[in-house]
Each structure stands twice: as C-alpha cells, then as structure tokens.
Amino acid sequence: MQALTYQGARDVRVETVPDPSIVAADDLILRVTATAICGSDLHIYHGKIPDMHDGDILGHEFMGIVEEVGPEVTEVSVGDRVVIPFVIACGQCFHCALNEFSACETTNSGPGAALNRKQLRPPAALFGYSHLYGGVPGGQAELVRVPKANVGPFAVPDVLADEQVLFLSDILPTGYQAVVNAGIKLGSTVAIFGAGPVGCMAAACARMLGAETIYMVDHHDYRLAFARAAYGVIPINFDEQDDPAAQIIEATAGRGVDASIDAVGFEAKGSTTETVLTTLKIEPSSGAALRQCIAATRRGGIVSVPGVYAGFIHGFLFGDAFDKGLTFKMGQTHVQALLPELLEAIGEGRLRPDEIITHRMKLADAAQAYQIFNDRKEDCRKVVLTP
C-alpha cells in the first residue's frame, strides 16, 4: 500500500509499505477514504517531537470503510463506514470507566512525555505519533490497522459526506472539549489564542454553546478574516498589536474575559530568549501564549489548554494565576466520550466543521500538502487527503 512516512525533520515521503494485518483479536483493518493533516503533525514535521523513527507512518485524523475484523470485534462489521478517534483506548481500565479515554492505562507501549512521572502509567496510545505514545502506524495511508476496535471506531450515517464528519477524529472534539473545559455558556466572553483548525473549531463550539463575545488572536490575516466571517469573532493580529491581552482587558472594562483558550501550544511565537532556548533544545516549549491567556482572563476565570505542551516552559507566571484565582484545565481529548453529541450537532446543522477545508489533494501528493499547510501557502487552513 501507499503511506506517508516520516524520514526526519521537514522530510516526509509517500512510499510503498507492507499492508497491515490483524494482530489482536479485537483489531480491524480500515480502508481509508479521507485523512487530514493536523497542526500536531506539523510538530513532527518540524522535528520537535522526540522518539520518532524513520519510516513511521503519520496521520491521526482519518476515516474509512471497515475491510476486515478480528474474531472478537462485535461493535462494527465489514463494510461499515467509521471515523477513528486519534486516541486508542481499551474501554475497561480505571480511566476509561470514567470516560477519560486519553488517560487509558493499557494501550501505550511507550513511556509518555511526562518528565517527572515516577511510576505513573503512561497515557493512551495515539495513532501516527511518537513512540512515546506507542508508535502506532497512522492514517495517512491506504490501509490502517485499528486496535481496540470495539471502543474507538464510530459509525457515521451515509447521508453525511466524509468531509462533514472527518474532523470528529480530532479537531472538532478537541475544540469542543476546550470550550467545555472553559465553562462556556450563554453570555460568556472568551479569548481564543490561535486561529488554526483547533482554534476555529473552538470558536464554532463556543458560538453553539452561546458565547456572546469571542476574541481571536493570530498573526495570519486570512485566518482571522475567515474566523470573523464564519464565527463572528473580534480579530486581533499580534503582528500589529504586540500585547493582545492588554487590548482585551481594555475592551472588557478592565476585567478580562471569562475564559481563555490556548489553541497554539508549545510552538507559540515567543520572545527572543524563548526562541534561542527552544532552538538549542534547552527548553522544550514557549510560554508566550500561556502568558497571554493568564493576562487576558478575569479574576476567578478559566484557562483552557488544548494546545500541546511538553516539559517545562519559560516565564510561566504562576504567581499571577494565583493572584487572579484562575482555574486551568488541559490535556489530550477524551474523543470517544464526545462523539455522539457532536455527530448530532453536525446532523442538525449546528456545526459545519467542513467549512475550514481549503485544500483537497491526493495522498500521493501528501509531501507537497505538508509544505503548503506548513508554509500557509495559498491561504491554507486545512488539507484533506484522499487515497
């Protein structure tokens, strides 16, 4: 089969690799009909994610048709059309019983990314990601082996096109969990840092839940223009306003927003010091977006972090957070727990995740697609690949 493989920083290639096969009794084999490039894939592309191996198959946003099932698969059948959550969960461990699927204790053969983990079990395995998270081959391929097939694959109705439901695999539930964690409700004010795919999904979900005012911070005008037209955000370009939090505080009568969402993560554009520290790998993450979130949020408010972070960060103003009595909520998405309500919202037309797609390309052109998405060429917001 054909698959997109990692060969080092900024080097990904479509290669011919062996077809996957059933390994465990509850595996299935999926024939991919649509897959996407995610912002998290760009962290890998930039060489910022440790324990990647040459030849690893990338991609964690994908869906398709069930082609083969193991003897213990009971929840889906050959021929079913399913979306695959990027989180691999067993459905039976302590955390899965609490619907905390991204904390599943049994699926990850790697150690996870925590630096001071003691004897803590690792979090769930992820498709198409680092061997810290299991090194499970991903979905930017023609075929995928899907472990724990009684827990992850989510059947979708034929009346909805692939593009309408594809993002149930990651960015839509990630954006939704971010706004739920932020406590967004009717009349809320929220600042979203990052107008990429997750930021846009967060804005869409915040509107659905009744947010009154949404500030969105980014430095790409075309992204901000889309978010203003699609979700009614108030755009702030940090290339023009070097302290967006100050503008947000002024606009909210010196109080700040009810919640801020950091949809950027550890590759946020930071200070010169942070750029040097991260380039030299002395420090793994920039704290620029988090500092802005802390500053923009009102006393007693919430900072929600769907953006990926690793290790320690420079200038984390914990004293400011304490002074303001802030609550932080963060982490990988418990995708499986959120899919039924999100599918209902799509079916009813309350969410249109396909609106963010700008580029549709073939899997054979995936290396070029990565360059377009990474370089923000042609006003690229989101790329969907088809085998």
Give your account of this protein's structure.
Helix content is 27%, strand content 22%. The chain contains twelve helices and 17 strands. The protein is globular. The chain folds into two domains: 2-170 and 333-386, Medium-chain alcohol dehydrogenases, catalytic domain (Quinone Oxidoreductase, Chain A, domain 1, Alpha-Beta Complex); 171-330, NAD(P)-binding Rossmann-like Domain (Rossmann fold, 3-Layer(aba) Sandwich). Helix 4 packs across helix 11 (335-347) and helix 7 (244-251) packs parallel to helix 9 (288-296). It is an alpha/beta fold and 387 residues long. The termini are close together. The protein has helices spanning 39-45, 94-97, 162-165, 171-181, 197-208, 221-231, 244-251, 272-279, 288-296, 318-324, 335-347, 366-375; strands spanning 2-6, 12-16, 28-37, 61-69, 81-84, 87-88, 125-126, 143-146, 154-155, 189-193, 213-218, 234-237, 257-262, 297-305, 327-330, 359-362, 383-386. Strands 3, 4, 5, 8, 9, 16 and 17 form a seven-stranded mixed β-sheet that branches. The chain has a six-stranded parallel β-sheet with strand order 12-11-10-13-14-15, sandwiched between helices.
Topology at a glance:
Blueprint: E1 2-6, E2 12-16, E3 28-37, H1 39-45, E4 61-69, E5 81-84, E6 87-88, H2 94-97, E7 125-126, E8 143-146, E9 154-155, H3 162-165, H4 171-181, E10 189-193, H5 197-208, E11 213-218, H6 221-231, E12 234-237, H7 244-251, E13 257-262, H8 272-279, H9 288-296, E14 297-305, H10 318-324, E15 327-330, H11 335-347, E16 359-362, H12 366-375, E17 383-386
Parallel strand pairs: 10-11, 10-13, 11-12, 13-14, 14-15, 16-17
Antiparallel strand pairs: 1-2, 3-4, 3-8, 3-17, 4-5, 5-9, 6-7
Helix pairs in contact: 4-5, 4-11, 7-9
